[in-house]
Design a protein that fits this description.
By secondary structure, this protein is mainly α. It is 77% helix and 0% strand. It contains ten helices and no strands. The chain is elongated, with a radius of gyration of 18 Å.
């Protein structure tokens, strides 16, 4: 039951952030009592923290798998990351792609959620930075570009893709045009 609760909490957080998280809605969706939810999570903050951590763990596992699959193939890494985010937008609609992109919009969040979101951002940058250092070592990317700077620039482009999906009323017509945006950015660095 705990895993089902977390899965539903992740959906709610993706779609509307901390404010949207509701024990009542989760209990209705899962056809269980609020008492059963409180057996696993004493309060909204605890549920939000556990759901956010679960989301981050799953997200980083997927990204690390992509990174390992493309060791020595930076362009392949970038293409698959780009494809992953575009497909997330396509499958989740304008909202519902990322917990952290929802949470960073809210004021008054519990401090641990802010820390988790910031740590996740830094972990993503580090993952990109590691790939970039390897690509520079292999001569795929110019070594004059600081790896962290390029990692931040690539992640900024991804955030722009996510922001566009959050603000566009119908993002579908733009998705095909978004393909190649990261790859084009990397090709300028080669």
């Amino acid at each position: 039951m705990r895993d089902l609760i977390l899965k539903e909490a992740v959906k709610q957080l993706k779609r509307g952030g901390y404010e949207n998280l509701s024990f009542t809605a989760i209990s209705k969706t899962l056809d269980t009592s609020r008492a059963n939810l409180h057996h696993h999570f004493s309060n909204k903050e605890g549920l939000a923290i556990a759901a956010t951590q679960s989301y981050i763990n799953n997200n980083m596992a997927r990204l690390n798998e992509i990174s390992l699959r493309h060791t020595g193939d930076f362009l392949g890494f970038v293409v698959e990351i780009e494809h992953m985010f575009i497909e997330l937008i396509r499958s989740n609609g304008a909202k519902g792609m990322c917990i952290c992109s929802q949470l960073v919009r809210e004021e008054g969040l519990p401090e641990e959620l802010v820390v988790l979101s910031k740590r996740h951002f830094n972990d993503l940058i580090s993952l990109f930075e590691t790939q970039i250092k390897e690509a520079q070592h292999d001569g795929v990317i110019k070594s004059i570009i600081p790896p962290r700077k390029l990692a931040v620039q690539l992640w900024t482009i991804i955030l722009g893709i996510l922001q566009m999906a959050l603000t566009a009323s119908d993002v579908e017509p733009y998705l095909d045009d978004m393909k190649g945006i990261l790859t084009n950015s990397v090709s300028y660095s080669a």
